[in-house]
Design brief:
The chain has eight helices and two strands.
């Protein structure tokens, strides 16, 4: 087929045979590929073109004497191409969109985190010892209000109050860090 050179109005015999294959078998092959591609029409059409290209590249399969129809051969080629495409997609990492999803957490790079930690340490040092002790226990060590109250020997309400005023003082010291926590 690829080597056939008889021309009729600028098209080769091979092109006529390929167009005839498309007309006769294109619909059923596309239906098969749509099922194999879970309804993805673009992928199914791409695989149909690849199937017809393989037919064009292997004219011996199209003209074999043992076949009553070429459709089983084309269906086998189409099914194998679809299976190969599925395997290739599973082997690749998932594609990532250009934009950042709205629910994605944006984390600073290590240098920015280190700089922020230094800023927070400096701001915590400006607090009174009572406020600093509450913050260290509740926010940095993860103690509950009741646990912090027992450790400091003060009522739970005092722990809550000191934590509130300590955070407010930190917001004043770190204006750029606490804009979204008000």
């Amino acid at each position: 087929m690829p080597g056939t050179t008889s021309r009729t109005r600028g098209t080769t015999t091979a092109e006529h045979e390929l167009a005839a294959l498309q007309r006769e078998h294109g619909g059923p092959l596309l239906a098969l590929l749509l099922r194999l591609c879970d309804g993805d029409r673009q992928r199914a059409e791409d695989l149909l073109q690849e199937t017809l290209l393989r037919a064009w590249q292997h004219p011996e399969a199209l003209h074999a004497d043992g076949f009553a129809s070429v459709r089983p051969w084309l269906s086998t080629v189409a099914r194998r191409l679809a299976i190969d495409a599925i395997r290739a997609r599973r082997a690749r990492p998932a594609e990532v969109a250009d934009g950042v999803p709205e629910d994605a957490r944006i984390t600073a790079d290590p240098a920015e985190r280190a700089a922020a930690a230094l800023d927070v340490r400096a701001a915590v040092k400006t607090l009174t010892p009572q406020h600093r002790d509450v913050l260290v226990l509740v926010y940095f060590r993860g103690a509950s209000v009741a646990e912090a109250a027992r450790a400091l020997g003060v009522p739970p309400g005092t722990v809550k109050s000191r934590a509130h005023y300590a955070l407010r003082a930190l917001r004043r010291e770190l204006p750029g860090y606490a804009a979204d926590q008000r």
